[in-house]
Amino acid sequence: MISFHSLEDRIVKRYMRSASREDPAWAGLPTVPDIALPRLRLAGRATFADESEVARNPRARSAVMRVAERLDS
Prior knowledge:
Layout: E1 2-3, H1 6-19, E2 40-42, E3 47-48, H2 51-56, E4 64-65, E5 68-70
Antiparallel strand pairs: 1-4, 2-5, 3-4
């Protein structure tokens, strides 16, 4: 997901964080139903454009890329 505004990035970050965790209601129980398992696995940290990219494309300075892998249950 690439976001170009801080408010968009906040929405993306919160969604990815919540979708990558187990439902806290089922925490500590021996068996967890499929619906409570994480849907995403976070893959790295936020990536920003480097100086050379911003020099070629000034609009890239606000872009943030976040990567997550979808987990199939």
